[in-house]
Amino acid sequence: MHTLSAYPQPSVTVDCVIFGYDGKQLSVLLLNRKEEPYAGMWTIPGGFLYLDETLEASADRILTTKTGIASLFLEQLFTFGKPDRDPRGRVLSVAYYALINPERFELSAGNMANDVNWFPIGQLPELGFDHNDVLKTAIQRLQAKATYQPIGFELLNPQFTISELQDLYECILDVKLDRRNFHKKMMASGIVRPTGQKRLGEKNRAPELFEFDREQYNELVKSGFQFKI
Questions:
Q1: Is CATH 3.90.79.10 correct for 4-144?
Q2: In this model, does residue 1 exceed pLDDT 90?
Q3: pLDDT at residue 227 above 80?
Q4: Are 25 and 43 in contact (CB under 8 A)?
Q5: What is the distance between the alpha carbons of residues 37 and 55, in angstroms, rounded to a whole number?
Q6: How far apart are CA 2 and CA 6, in angstroms?
Q7: For the chain, what is the mean pLDDT?
Q8: Which key words tag this protein in UniProt (predicted)?
């Protein structure tokens, strides 16, 4: 039996694409590298996998130490493995992604970064490594997921208007949605229910408030329910 030393041993990194939605626009979290390669350039937060940790533990450690954000629920995105993706040598990257409300987290750049900050999706700098491809893949995954599974409800207040929910989906999908059709689909889905209350204090209007019925959604998923926007 051959030992592992008989085979090539590429390094493994974990990269974390963190999307943010603040009620107005979709952004992504980037850090400015202090060290080579790509010193002074913006990249997706990432780092090398330690031998004694899981991929998930590595992602949590990297986000905590390099951005100040801890204990996020992350979904695995894709594994990137072009031979020339890292000038230091053969490096595979396992990427994760998440969608959060930036206003609920305080950023803190680690000692290997000049800065860490949010950038609107439409105003991104050139990224180091192959992170333009990583981000493109993450955006496509987020948009695809939004068309078949309710996402982002945790970004809104527990009670929200249909307009606020529509704004969220329009930012993610980067399209304009028909107001009446969106309202109809949300009501037909059974996962959004009216609270019987209205938001007071807005000029010339008092929009109806709704809430996400997660228990109903979980039951529908068990029976084969599919959410379609």
A1: yes
A2: no
A3: no
A4: no
A5: 23
A6: 6
A7: 93
A8: Hydrolase
